[in-house]
Amino acid sequence: MQTAFFYGMLSINVQKDFCGYTRKKYSSVIKRKESFKIMKKKESQNYLDFMPVKNPDIEYETAENGRVTVFIEWKGFYHKIAQKFFHRPRVSDIKLDEIGSFVWLAIDGSKDVHELSLELEKQFPNEEKPLPRLIRFLEIMHDNHLIYWKGEARK
After folding, report:
1. 137 within 8 A of 52, measured Cβ to Cβ
2. Residue 10, Ramachandran bin (φ over 0: left; ψ between -120 and 50: alpha; else beta)
3. How far apart are CA 112 and CA 110, in angstroms?
4. CATH number for the domain formed by residue range(s) 50-149
5. Are 4 and 14 in contact (CB under 8 A)?
6. CA dihedral 103, 108, 112, 114 (to 10 degrees)
7. Residues 6+ apart with CB under 8 A from 14
8. pLDDT in tens, 9-26
9. Strand, coil or helix: what is 77?
């Protein structure tokens, strides 16, 4: 047996199961206003116009074969705990591959992503889809605070 009645903004369904117990099921009659919020329209940004700039706090070195190693110092309270109790290194070294090293050395603060992609295509003509790979690489570098975009406030 099922009975339904309305109470304010909720509908309450009362059901009796085979043992005679009463269960109530609450369901929303009117959707909340939060579900109808108008999303702000994101500004479309063209990655080709961004100018990457190396973070001056990041140290790096170039090996004889042209490969770049980036050194990241782990600072902060939680990093200190991890260093002390879990024997994590204070400085991590990230070895970039051939393309990553080329892009890292090509970033000088005056070239935009489009110019970097043209240089990348000249240097590695057999590389398939260099532009999406370049953009993804720069996004990862930006997310890890190794680079920032020119005109952007640094974190």
Report:
1. no
2. beta
3. 7
4. 3.90.930
5. yes
6. -30
7. 2, 3, 4, 5, 22, 23, 24
8. 444 455 555 555 555 554
9. helix
Summary mean pLDDT of the chain:
79
pTM: 0.67
pLDDT tens column, 98-118: 999 999 999 998 999 999 999
Half-sphere exposure of 123 (CA within 13 A, CB side): 15
| Amino acid occupying residue 48 | L
- What are the domain boundaries of the chain? 2-29, 50-149
Number of neighbours of residue 117 by Cβ within 10 angstroms = 20
Q: Which residues contact 10 (CB under 8 A, 6 or more apart)?
A: 26, 27, 28, 29
Q: Determine the Cα–Cα distance for residues 147 and 7; give it in Å rounded to an integer.
A: 56
Is the CB of residue 147 less than 8 Å from the CB of residue 122? no
Residue 49 DSSP symbol: G
Instruction: Report the run of H or E that residue 116 belongs to, with start and end.
Output: helix 113-123
Residues 92 and 74 sit within 8 Å (Cβ to Cβ): yes
